[in-house]
Structure to design on (641 residues):
């Protein structure tokens, strides 16, 4: 016991752990009306950690070679001890990450948390969302199944609609005119080396902004739901009299993570095929186009939207413009009101938009 | 003025929300890849009415179409050159004469052609006996099952009783093959490596199908029993996979239960601090 105490004191005099704990954990105060939706970020961090660990384990047996990729994934699923569990967790985890990022973004929008001075939080979060979609897309090719091969063919094809440089970008991404072994090499590098590092870096930046500016106050349960920021000088958004991050809110985070894990485990063990159509387990055959290749669920609305336009470039342009608009939302929306019920037009459009998104996804699935 | 600005802000927020949910980031694929590049035979005949267009309609529903076997795979010719598509110089064969049909189909179905030719049906070829297309059809070729042996088809040429006896003897085996095939497909769709089982079933099914052309009741019964034993062995392997799945589900129930319990404990702990 004395030995442990001496180690603690040795560290304490060098790092000031007591002060750090007081500042970042027990003394880190959050608004009293903080809610469940504020733990979405922790859930996403947990999912990211699971993805990294399962991804590393998959790397032990996965072979990024067009001739061996499919058989290596088959071996992981059938012969490697607990390989099925690791691969299923990784594949389902990717969909969960997109789902919870969507929920996180929507909660931020509904609670007006993107409003100044948190424009940079929004921007970094938006970049993270895009990077997660890119990592999902690149990971989709790696099993080298019919689904992987043809979904990547279709996805990269659409970039060719960009005038002048489109074809060059397509060939650059594919490493040739068609999806083939060089594409697998490129996507593998992006998936396991480039994008994870980028995501980890942007997560760091996102958390730095959060730490520097402070947690936003939810607009619920307050009389004054206007944005408190004055804009004359930098001020940390303090929550005097608020609840401490440790142990109070960390227990909320743990509760949310455990609830998420229940849902995740239920999908992994009881309906693991929910995100896997049959083509996901047939080896890629460049000479046989499957009848119905559809993108992952989170791209179905895009897929259907693009199908509605007669010209692919117009569809791409509209989506590009929408993306830019959305990324710059905090710079466009200067309103001070944060409560969604005091923004009736916002509510109507938000609910309409969600229904439209679900409708387009269902249409895309059955079209 | 302030209200106007607020409304404008609301409007902008709403538009962006709607765009978020509609467009959800990056553009993805739009092209529908289901439309296959059609060969000239289909492009030309498919558009024609009556006798000339009929084969295309029938073929589209056939097992040949499902497996990517197109017109030129049987009839030869050049499927990419509309002008010379039906040129004998490009290997066009057209429709075979009645006596040439078994050899025509037998280019691919080698074993089946051999079985047919040694059967009573094959020996009657050219003497009023049936050819491949009599039972299997020509363009609407469907997967060979016992349903092909039926009163309507058989009694067109002879009494159905003998065929019925053979069909009854094979019925159980056929049912087993269909059921095992379905189970294998289902496991395959879940990522199970079914390669060995598929090959085993393929081999057994082919052996079984050779009996379809046999009219020796005793031999059919004997061979069916032998095939049943092999099928039971494949079914045993599938049962083991089923067993493994059940164990996984049990483990899953424990994990889900544990996670729920953890959630409850964390929740109660949090409440105790409130």
């Amino acid at each position: 016991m004395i030995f442990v105490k001496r180690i603690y004191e040795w560290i304490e005099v060098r790092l000031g752990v007591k002060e750090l704990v007081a500042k970042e954990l027990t003394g880190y105060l959050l608004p009293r009306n903080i809610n469940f939706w504020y733990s979405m970020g922790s859930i996403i961090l947990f999912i990211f950690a699971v993805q990294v660990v399962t991804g590393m384990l998959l790397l032990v047996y996965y072979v990024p070679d067009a001739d061996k990729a499919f058989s290596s994934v088959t071996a992981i699923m059938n012969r490697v001890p607990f390989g099925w569990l690791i691969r299923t967790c990784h594949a389902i985890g990717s969909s969960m990450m997109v789902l919870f990022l969507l929920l996180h973004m929507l909660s931020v929008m509904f609670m007006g948390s993107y409003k100044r001075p948190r424009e940079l939080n929004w921007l970094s979060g938006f970049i993270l969302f895009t990077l997660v979609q890119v990592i999902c897309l690149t990971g989709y090719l790696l099993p080298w199944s019919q689904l992987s091969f043809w979904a990547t063919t279709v996805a990269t094809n659409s970039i060719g609609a960009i005038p002048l440089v489109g074809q060059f970008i397509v060939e650059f991404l594919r490493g040739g005119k068609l999806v083939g072994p060089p594409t697998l090499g490129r996507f593998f590098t992006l998936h396991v080396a480039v994008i994870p590092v980028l995501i980890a870096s942007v997560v760091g930046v996102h958390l730095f902004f959060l730490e520097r500016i402070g947690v936003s106050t939810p607009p619920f349960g307050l009389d004054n739901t206007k944005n408190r920021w004055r804009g004359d000088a930098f001020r940390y958004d303090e929550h005097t009299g608020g609840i401490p991050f440790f142990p109070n809110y960390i227990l909320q985070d743990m509760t949310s993570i455990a609830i998420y894990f229940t849902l995740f485990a239920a999908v992994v063990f009881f309906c693991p095929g929910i995100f896997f159509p049959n083509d996901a387990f047939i080896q890629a055959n460049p000479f046989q186009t499957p009848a119905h290749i559809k993108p992952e669920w989170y791209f179905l609305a895009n897929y259907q939207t693009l199908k509605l336009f007669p010209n692919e470039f117009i569809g791409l342009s509209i989506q590009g413009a929408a993306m830019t608009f959305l990324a710059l939302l905090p710079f466009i929306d200067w309103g001070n009101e944060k409560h969604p019920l005091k923004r009736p037009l916002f509510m109507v459009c938000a609910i309409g938009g969600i229904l439209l998104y679900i409708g387009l996804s269902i249409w895309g699935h059955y079209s | 003025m302030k209200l106007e600005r607020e409304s404008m802000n609301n409007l902008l927020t709403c538009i962006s929300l709607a765009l978020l949910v509609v467009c959800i980031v990056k553009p993805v694929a739009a092209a529908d890849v289901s439309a296959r590049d059609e060969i000239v035979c289909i492009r030309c005949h498919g558009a024609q009415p009556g006798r000339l267009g009929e084969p295309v309609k029938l073929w589209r529903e056939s097992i040949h179409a499902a497996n990517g076997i197109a017109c030129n795979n049987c009839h030869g010719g050049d499927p990419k050159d509309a002008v010379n598509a039906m040129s004998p110089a490009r290997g066009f064969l057209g429709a075979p004469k009645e006596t040439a049909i078994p050899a025509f189909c037998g280019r691919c179905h080698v074993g089946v052609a051999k079985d047919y030719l040694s059967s009573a049906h094959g020996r009657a070829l050219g003497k009023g006996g049936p050819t491949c297309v009599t039972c299997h059809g020509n363009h609407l070729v469907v997967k060979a099952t016992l349903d092909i042996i039926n009163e309507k088809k058989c009694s067109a040429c002879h009494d159905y009783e003998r065929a019925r006896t053979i069909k009854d003897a094979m019925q159980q085996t056929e049912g087993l093959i269909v059921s095992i095939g379905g189970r294998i497909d289902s496991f395959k769709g879940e990522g199970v490596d079914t390669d060995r089982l598929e090959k085993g079933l393929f081999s057994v099914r082919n052996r079984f199908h050779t009996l379809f052309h046999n009219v020796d009741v005793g031999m059919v019964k004997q061979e069916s029993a032998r095939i049943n034993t092999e099928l039971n062995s494949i079914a045993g392997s599938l049962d083991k996979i089923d067993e493994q799945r059940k164990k996984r589900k049990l483990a899953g129930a424990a994990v889900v239960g544990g996670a729920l319990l953890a959630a409850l404990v964390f929740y109660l702990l949090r409440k105790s601090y409130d």
Q: What stands out?
A: The first helix of chain B runs from residue 2 to 23. Chain B touches chain A through 54 residues (CB under 8 Å).
